[in-house]
Amino acid sequence: MIDIRKLTKTYVMGDNVIHALGGVSLTIGRGEHVAIVGPSGSGKSTLMNVLGGLDRPTAGDYRFEDDPVADYDDDELASFRNRRIGFVFQSFQLLPRLTAVQNVELPMIYAGIPAAERRDRAVALLERVGLGDRLANKPTQMSGGQQQRVAIARALANAPDLLLADEPTGALDTATGQEVLALFDELNSQGLTLCIVTHDNEVAARARRRIAFRDGHIVSDDRNVG
């Protein structure tokens, strides 16, 4: 599914040049469950941003099922993000004035899905993540774990090919975090490709593949861990 070759990402900050990615080459197959680990500043979040089309590489090639993502213009990149990638973040990033259903509907609005279909799909997704009784609740009326489940349902709204999660349990207590990770395991078992960026070894241990970054480079790539 994912094929990146000699990918670099450089940031210029004043007189300093930051080499966030230093010529990374990597493939990820459809249906894989991958954990990307490393200390702060190692390049793992930069890689996730490039994979999800949130940022562009400075150089190198990125192909998603043979499509040249690195060459996309802004409109093509926005469409790629909306239709093929689902994002889950540590901070949930729900809109506080919207209900759970309305938050899940948002990506479908941008994709041009008709209103009735949006509603039906949002309700079905919230039921799928165990929130069928919270459809009309706003984020402030839900626990952290429930908010993250809404965020996961939103990430699934346009049936993405790849789900990217950045520290998805970082704001949750241990028990709630385990519930969210079990949901990820279930989604992956149903065929969804899953890539989790984390510094938590317990989270990484649940993945079937663990890729470690340091100073913008891959230092290990281990399969069948956990």
Secondary structure layout:
Elements: E1 2-13, E2 16-28, E3 33-37, H1 44-51, E4 59-64, E5 67-68, H2 74-84, E6 85-89, H3 100-110, H4 115-128, H5 144-155, E7 162-166, H6 174-189, E8 193-198, H7 201-205, E9 209-214, E10 217-223
Parallel strand pairs: 3-8, 3-9, 6-7, 7-8
Antiparallel strand pairs: 1-2, 1-4, 4-5, 9-10
Pfam families: ABC_tran (PF00005)
Domain ABC transporter: 2-225
Keywords: ATP-binding, Cell inner membrane, Cell membrane, Membrane, Nucleotide-binding, Transport
Please, could you describe this protein's structure?
This protein has helices at 44-51, 74-84, 100-110, 115-128, 144-155, 174-189, 201-205; strands at 2-13, 16-28, 33-37, 59-64, 67-68, 85-89, 162-166, 193-198, 209-214, 217-223. By secondary structure, it is of the alpha/beta class. It has one domain (33-56, 83-223): P-loop containing nucleotide triphosphate hydrolases (Rossmann fold, 3-Layer(aba) Sandwich). The strands form 2 sheets. Strands 6-7-8-3-9-10 form a 6-stranded mixed sheet, with helices on both faces. It is globular and about 50 Å long. The model has no long low-confidence stretch (mean pLDDT 94).
Going by CATH, what is the homologous superfamily?
P-loop containing nucleotide triphosphate hydrolases
Termini Cα gap: 23 Å
Order of helices and strands: EEEHEEHEHHHEHEHEE
Alpha-beta classification: alpha/beta
In CATH, the architecture is 3-Layer(aba) Sandwich
Q: Quick one: CATH class?
A: Alpha Beta
What is the name of the CATH topology? Rossmann fold
The whole-number mean of residue pLDDT values reads 94
Helix content: 25-40%
What characteristic shape results from the CA principal axes? globular
Major sheet size, sense and barrel closure: 6 strands, mixed
Record field, number of beta strands: 10
* Uncertain residue segments: none
User: How many helices does DSSP assign?
Assistant: 7
Determine the strand fraction and express it as a percent band: 25-35%
